[in-house]
Sequence to fold (890 residues):
Amino acid sequence: MFTLWLSSASCLLFVGLVGRQLGLRVGLQCVQTVTCSRWGTPSNQGLFQDGDVVIGGLFSLHSQPPAIDHDFTQLPHYKPCTGLEHIPLKYMYALTFAVEEINNSPALLPGVRLGYHMFDSCGRPPWALQAALSLVGGDSSNCKSTDPPDYSTGYGEGIGGRTGDHPVPLIIGGASSVTGQILSRILSPLSISYLSSCPCLSDRRQFPNFFRTMPSDTYQARAIAQLAIHFNWTWIGAVVANNDYGHMAVKIFQEETQGKDVCLAFVETLQREKIVSDARRAALTIQASTARVILIFTWYTDVRELFLQLAKINVTDRQFLASEAWSTSDNLLQNLVASKVASGVLGVAIRSSPLPGFENYLRNLLPIHHPNDEFLKEFWGAEFGCSAGVTPLFSYSPSSLKSGPLQKASPPPCSGTESLEGVQHPFTDTSQLRVAYNVYLAVYAAAHALHSLLSCPNRERPPGDKSSTCSSPKHIKQIELLQHLNNVNFTTPQGEIFYFNGADIPAKYDLVNWQNTPEGSLKLVLIGRVEGFDLHLNESAIQWSTGSNQVPVSVCSESCPPGTRKANRKGEPLCCFDCIPCAEGEISSKTGSLHCDRCPSEFWSNVEQTACIPRQVDFLSFNETLGITLTTAAVSGATVTTAVFVVFIYYRQTPVVRANNSELSFLLLLSLKLCFLCSLVFIGRPSVWSCRFQQAAFGISFVLCVSCLQVKTIVVLAAFRSARPGAEVLMKWFGPGQQRGSVCLFTCIQVIICIIWLSLSPPVPQADLDIPGSKVTLKCAMASVVGFSLVLGYIGLLACTCLLLAFLARKLPDNFNEAKLITFSMLIFCAVWVAFVPAYVSSPGKYVVAVEVFAILASSYGLLICIFVPKCFIILLRPEKNSKKHLMAR
Fold:
């Protein structure tokens, strides 16, 4: 019973806060005499031990009752808590074990005996709050006192008769983050929680009196995110509790994996009040999803129902990532359904540490030695099927207030010979102490803070200084103990350095793996640890859900291999994408590239588009088909020209040879031969000298050739003009000397153009990097387009003049009039070079050279065939026409 001295308005405010927000089973009567009283009686179900200093404890020893719908029209009816939980019971005895060790220690709290007062919070904040009210507010049974209790220390008068009215300076608990928040916000006791892990509780401004030996969930969520990144799991499903524990885990997981290409395929929430329907929905979502790795952040009771639903629909091939809330649950490890559905679970667990002597302590517990321990009696009766004097649990329903405690049929009494020695039970299993070790550390932290406070270093203050007084076990102030708790720094009996960083301790976790045993059950195997943000993992020790050592794959889209890039699918998460091959000249050298990199201009991509390789130098060579063809054509042309030259030499005295200016004919044949041979200079690997020589040889050879034709045409015109009266002078001034001079003049002009061009800006061998492809063409780059244009333009000017003159002389009466032949040859010559210009400009790579060679050969063959083939035909095959009589017929 407790009494609160409040005004009527304040009392109503308290009723609204507790009743509306928490559904607390505590009634308050608000009267005008500012007196509040509590309905019902406090629970007698607890574990008590007197001491000079008494610490409180809150443990969730029983399963929580069904949810109650509060309509605030009548007092709520709460069903009693049922089903003793063996593991939390072990946590409670870890506290008694630590207190016993401290009381037996000569170095820690010498002369001060610790006591404890522990309640069952039943896993529900209302029970936890009522128990905490009893611990910090005393247990006075009436509201008749006219003086309010002294709360200057932050605590009440004691625990009325149970603990010798000793104050409770500190509470070990609560057993959940929600309980820790509620206690801190409403009562604000000085507490050390062993299982509250919400990151929000690290805020010292909101929770200045809160400490914990349990790391913040921030670290385990980050550890799981690091596991996902380490094993390249990019497509993960999540099933979480529908509270701060689950939602905060998802938030931190997403923050840690941001930018790491890890996506959540789905997030399903589980509400404990409707766990069956929620678990069924989550199981169907897991079945439908392509995610093979499932993160589960909720309590083991919820996981048990989820596994049951998965087993019903035969989903047994998922890899589960477990939070510390269920990764070490013996209840699940021994569950046959879990062994079918959840082998290979990879989880984060509260770090484990041995407690020497704790197993013997548990096995030596006997109800006869602890007659007031109702929890031990209940456990004893459940374990051995007998009655050890179990009393019913507290229940605060209106009916229970009238009829008294609930009555249950009792089993036969125990014989007294029962013992836990040799019994294999989760309660006595101390192979992996996790939460129990957190409780143990919390007790030691409290003991060291009390030791620092009660050792009173201020005793040696200067004489007359009365500003400080020494604390005594009977007068412990919360603010003083808080200061000492903040500065706690000691080495535990296990050799671990312990201190608080704000509300927290340095984060340490174990990494565990559920592995199959030959008997078909599951066992817990330690495979690594987490210290702060560092992950230490033994991958070879992991057994995956597939039963092998092969890491399972969980991706929305397979990683893009080298040579491709990722292209996101519209409207889908970033983890779902298509793989697009890199374009030619681009590469991606690693898996999962976001884009392709273009190769430098001197390099090109290989066939697989995975690496840049040097581009192969390409040019018109003598070894390839095109080069061989052009070379053959050039050599053949030179050979034929030589043969014609020989024929003309041999028949130089015949009328056909003599009548058509044999000297210019021989010079023309020589120039044609040079034209054929100069084309060979264009074939082969370009060099500095070949680039200069080929254009000069080409330009001069063709000017020489066209000059001969032009002079021959002028001679024909002059000869026929001389037959007219007064025209003799024309032939006199255009005799053989003038003909040779004209040819030399025309040719020298081209020579001068070439000299100036090649002196100022000659062609140079250069790789044509602008053309894409694995091959780079080595060609003679025209440094000066003007010079090359002048060379071609001069040839074109002479050719057009020759064509015009030949066209004018085409009808002159002569059987061997060359004007006709020159006309046809010049038409072919001009047509070839007119077509050459666009073909030259548009041709890629080495085909530019091929086009120029082809133009040289085509025009050379045109001249050779049109001018000399008819003459050779007459000389060799129609010798009767090679006579002066036939020549003079017209």
